[in-house]
Amino acid sequence: MTTFKVCKNHQITLSMEPSKNKMAQRIRNNKFIILFSFLIFNFSFLSAQDGTTIFKQKCSACHKIGEGRLVGPDLIGVTTKRSEDWLMKWTKSSSTLIASGDKDAIAIFNEYNKITMPDNPLTDEELKAIFAFIASKSPGAVTASVDTVKKVPSAPDASLTASSELIETGKNIFTGSYRLSNGGASCISCHNVNYNDVIPGGLLAKDLTNAYSRLGGDAGIKGIIGASPFPAMAQAYKDKPLTDYEITSLAAFLNKVDKDTANQIANTTDYLAYGGIAGMFGLIVLIFGTWFMRKKNTVKKDIYERQIKSI
Predict the structure, then answer these.
(1) Could you list the residue range(s) of the whole structural domain that residue 168 is in?
(2) Contact at 8 Å (CB) between 145 and 74?
(3) Who's near 248: CB < 8 A, 6+ residues apart?
(4) How many domains does the chain have?
(5) pLDDT tens across 199-215, in order?
(6) 69 Cβ partners below 8 Å, 6+ apart?
(7) Of the residues 101, 130, 148, which one is the last residue of a structural domain?
């Protein structure tokens, strides 16, 4: 309360309480705004942090941000080039988007050697965290083109000057002659290369004859082997990762296979298929023949013949 004397016989008393209440209310509002802003900032920061981890685990084998294309396109500024809805669809199942006839999806598929990006069972929240991380690594990239980003010079691929010993080790790892340090399966179980002195491999996965150039050289090969984005491969080597030496050796061997066209042989897929059919037919004939002979010469035949002679 504040009292002001107007004249000798009069005075005015003013209360300051309303002003104090307004000031307190203002302070409370400001505190709320500051707290809200702090929470939003921390949420964004945590999303970016989570996105960093997920990106390294799921995306870094095939994509870079601001360092040029790898197996797939450089992702700098991609969140400004595509809508979040489109990115969600593409990341969850690029094959579905391509099959739907989406022109952008088909163009990317054709440009990058028709390699289909594996489907990702990530939640919407995880995908948004990845997009937030990409956006945080794309300052001033609002109008930047993913494919016209200035590439950072990289060191020459080590496998280009690999020793014959390293290449031979890679070949043995591929064929299974070399036992992997952590007990993982050999590449030939699922993959094939059309190359002299290498037996035909499995048909469960892509042919790797030209994988070295198709997947972007050392960086692409090492990225996919070290942190595979392909579910089957990731599961197979989840607890049995290859060592750096083993990965480098495989990259050296695949580079040799890709570049040494003189020793590449014709595709053996048809021969394997025909051989399998012929083998199955032969097995059926063998089983039928064995069964027929057992039926013809049964155990009771000797007893029957003795009975006939005794008559």
Answers:
(1) 158-263
(2) no
(3) 158, 159, 162, 166, 222
(4) 3
(5) 888 888 888 999 888 88
(6) 112, 147, 151, 216
(7) 148
Tell whether 60 and 112 lie within a shared domain. yes
Neighbours of 212 (CB within 10 A): 23
Task: Give the burial string for 79-115 (b: 16+ CB within 10 Å, else e).
Answer: bebbeeeebbbbbbbbeebbeeebeebeebbeebeeb
Is residue 6's pLDDT more than 60?
no
- The answer to whether 220 and 258 are in contact (CB under 8 A) is no
Task: Give the residue-averaged pLDDT of 3-7.
Answer: 51
Q: What is the per-residue pLDDT for 94?
A: 86
Mean pLDDT of the chain: 76
* Residue 203 forms part of a structural domain: yes
Determine phi and psi for 5, rounding to 5 degrees. Answer: -90, 115
Asked if the structure places residue 28 within a domain, the reply is no
Q: Which one-letter amino acid corresponds to residue 63?
A: H
Asked whether residue 95 falls in the same domain as residue 131, the answer is yes
Mean pLDDT of 160-164: 74
Residue type, 256: K
CATH number at residue 75: 1.10.760.10
Reported confidence tier of residue 271, pLDDT bands at 50, 70, 90: low
Query: Tokens at residue 156, please?
Result: 């020459």
Q: What is the DSSP letter of 195?
A: B
Q: Supply the pTM of this predicted model.
A: 0.55
